[in-house]
Amino acid sequence: MSGIKISDEVVDYYNNHFKQKKKVMYFLCALNPGGTEIVLKDDADKREEVGAYQDKTPEESKKNFDTMKDKLKTDDPCFIVFDFWFKKGERVENKMGVISWISDECPVKKRMVYGSVKDALTRKLEGTKSIQANDKGDLEFDSVVTVFK
């Protein structure tokens, strides 16, 4: 890793609010302003509302995914931790995944830094797989969920 650490806050939030209690369907994390660690990106007060979900269904998962995707900016890379719900045969299942949002329009230095941290983040967030998205065309729900099935 590049000397950039994954904050305890990110790991704790993943384990306690996301993985176990399933309070939100997704959350975002990014480099802190000093560039020394990956931290939660959303406002703590609003985080329970952002990506909150009632129904654990593929339809609700797609709706939250599309809402999240609309918020992404091409010059602002981040990591998206998402709880994908999908149908497998007649059953509804879920898998947790990390999407590295690193747009091709992002400055080269940012792309290199985020690229160097993504594997470490995935290892810290046990039970996740990861993919990288370089433009919003890479973020079509049906295509992305297929990777995580």
From TrEMBL:
Source organism, top-level taxon: Eukaryota
Keyword Repeat among UniProt keywords: no
SMART domains linked: ADF
UniProt keyword list: Actin-binding
Family annotation (Gene3D superfamilies): Severin
Domain named ADF-H: residues: 3-149
Keyword Manganese carried by entry: no
Pfam families: Cofilin_ADF
Family membership noted in the UniProt record: Belongs to the actin-binding proteins ADF family.
Protein name: ADF-H domain-containing protein
Organism: Porites lobata
